[in-house]
Amino acid sequence: MEKIAGIPRLPTGVPNLDAIFNGGLPKGSVMVVGGSPGSGKTILSLQICFHNATPKNRVLVFGTLSEPTAKSLLYLKQLSFFDAKKLDGSIQFVDLGVMLRTKGLEAVSALIMEQLKKVKPSIVVIDSFKVFDDLAKSKEELRKFGYEIAVTLMAWEATALLLGEYGPNDVASNPLFSIVDGLAILSQRESLGENQRFFKIIKMRGTNHSRDDHPFLITSDGVEVFASRLSIKREPAAGGQPERCQTHIAKLDEIIGPGIPWGSSLLISGVAGTGKTVLSLEFIYRGAQAGEKGILFSFEETEERLRAAAQGLGWDLGREIDRGMIEIVFIPQPDIMVEAHLLMIQKRIEAMKAKRVVVDSISVFLHKVTDAQLSREKVFQLGSIIQNAGAVGFLPTDIPYGSDQVSRFGVEETVVDGVIILSSTEEGLERQRYIEVYKLRNTAHLKGRHNLVIGPGGVSVFPRYGDDLPADAPPPALEVATRLGSGIPGLDTLLRGGLLKRSVTLVSGSAGVGKSVFGLQFLLEGASRKERGLYVTLEEGPEQLLAGAEAMGLPLRTAVDAGMLQILYVSRENLRAGQFLTVLADRLKALKASRVVLDAATQMLTERTPIDELRHVLYKLMVRFKTLDITSVLTLEAPNLYSTERVTELGLSPIADNILMLRYEEADGRLAPRLTIVKTRGSDHDRGTHAVTVGQGGMRIETRRPTPAEGT
């Protein structure tokens, strides 16, 4: 709103009222303040008076046949703006009641004139002016009296407030309203499920004022008007590349990408129990640890309950609260007043200079709002508060069970800068949580759903594709100039020099044929060349592997003790494909491994992991290995003991650069293991079937083709 130039303004001292008048009351104006009895007219007017009254700017308050002055002062003493010292000369009360009852309007007009000459006030209040309507013998007399009063007040350049029990229906019929400069109506009605008071300017000459209904409260501080549309204005965002916020929540930053631009508001959507409050609380807590102040507005959980929840997760939330890094503001759901609390939220954020904000939850905050457009407006105002503060806001919201909505009211997602969806699905005998960045403006985030676990330490996110791999990134090419020794005597000859660097080798083997030994020898060969390796087992525990290796004379324990090899055991019962990728990527990076073995990869196939998802996971895993410059071996359990035309029943062949098939053949009544190299990408290989021996020293390949009579 643009202020009309050249009209001096009188500050009201009423929160937000000056903004509604677009700068304050025009000085010298005559304004009617109407409203039913008890609507707050007297308190509002006297609050303006006490705010402005000084020995140089005196105030004159005329009482008529309404409330006696003594009684008014008795109630006024309970309000914080009341100052008894100002009654000595800055504010004077004159009772017109006796003269009105005995002598009529002309005598009252003369008395008002006499007092104006005597006091020379800057502000005049007549409470109630409606009495003159009742005592006037005709509309003509009332118009004449009102005109004389208005002219007299203007002549003295006094700002006048004429109070009365006027309503919207009186605007057209009362001649007074055509004379005065302004008219404001105070009303009471039900709104958003509760009885509220409203202030509205009907007219105000020389002022481009607000024309909305503005709710207000009467408290011990007097009248407080709420004008969120005027008080909450979104400031233009800064140009250029935005600075970004890191959440410091394990792996969440990796799926978000470069970070959340400061000034952004994110909707955290999900049904009950998906972890919205925990995620939001950790966002505040991790920020405090990083030196960024945070404030959480809660409409459901008290500070005590949030402290207890944080303690259960291993966080010292109380310490951050005590040192002023975190503030929790609890507002019980029945006490919510949307307009009032919007402005409170704004003030608390500004006062704390908070960089992280949580409003938990906006579905509760706006639960009384039934108009979708109004919900959208209030979410926009919340976002504006956050943007103006240069903070990042998490706005949790409950969405209905079984719906495909991403917000409670169906409009919030169009206003906010980002949407994070939390979900849970029943898998087997338990529910699994997932997180998805549905949208985030100006940010290249990782797409898709990612497994989320809440446990000791807080939220753990397990990205589907690793930490920085685009979903459609092609795998790096093989390094054809470099070959790595397999560690299997005789095999490198068949492979024409060994395995190509960065290649993926699939070893499909029957039960007991020596697949695990194959993997161990591959890693031990690397360890002998100072190449670190990781052995991932989904069947045997580390001690069992170490004992088996010792029995065969393989120096596995020595390599482990030297830090060249690590064994990672993943329980099949607790295996989740999404978690597995992240855990493995973390371990490989920490170890700086150049070789990895995934033993019994087919054990990943469970009721919770269908074959299509397993293929997807393994493909992403292979791309991850290649990206990290790792040469890998995967062993698969074959369904048949004997040779077949199929290497695997799972359709996993396309992910491999090399495919080796270990099967049994019957010879002289015994099972004899045989090796066939089915495929090598980027190089030639022997295409024959060769005998395999497994014993002291591990596995060995015979480089000549056996006869049917030969065994092991």
Key features of this structure:
Rossmann fold; single chain; 22 helices; alpha/beta; 3 domains; 712 residues; 9-stranded mixed beta sheet
Write the layout of secondary structure elements.
Blueprint: E1 9-10, H1 17-20, E2 25-26, E3 30-35, H2 41-52, E4 59-63, H3 69-76, E5 91-95, H4 97-103, H5 105-119, E6 123-127, H6 130-135, H7 139-155, E7 159-164, H8 176-179, E8 182-191, E9 194-204, E10 214-219, E11 222-225, H9 228-231, E12 244-245, H10 252-256, E13 260-261, E14 265-270, H11 276-289, E15 294-298, H12 303-312, H13 317-322, E16 326-330, H14 338-352, E17 356-360, H15 362-365, H16 372-388, E18 392-398, E19 418-427, E20 430-440, E21 449-455, E22 458-462, E23 479-484, H17 491-494, E24 499-501, E25 504-509, H18 515-528, E26 533-537, H19 542-551, H20 556-561, E27 565-569, H21 577-591, E28 595-599, H22 611-627, E29 631-637, E30 658-667, E31 670-680, E32 689-695, E33 698-701
Can you describe what's shown?
- There is one protein chain.
- The strands form 6 sheets. A 9-stranded mixed sheet has the order 5-4-6-7-3-8-9-10-11, with helices on both faces.
- The protein starts with 8 loop residues before the first strand and ends in an 11-residue tail after the last strand.
- The chain has 712 residues and is α/β, with parallel strands linked by helices.
- The protein folds into 3 domains: 9-231, Rossmann fold (3-Layer(aba) Sandwich), CATH 3.40.50.300; 244-462, P-loop containing nucleotide triphosphate hydrolases (Rossmann fold, 3-Layer(aba) Sandwich), CATH 3.40.50.300; 479-701, P-loop containing nucleotide triphosphate hydrolases (Rossmann fold).
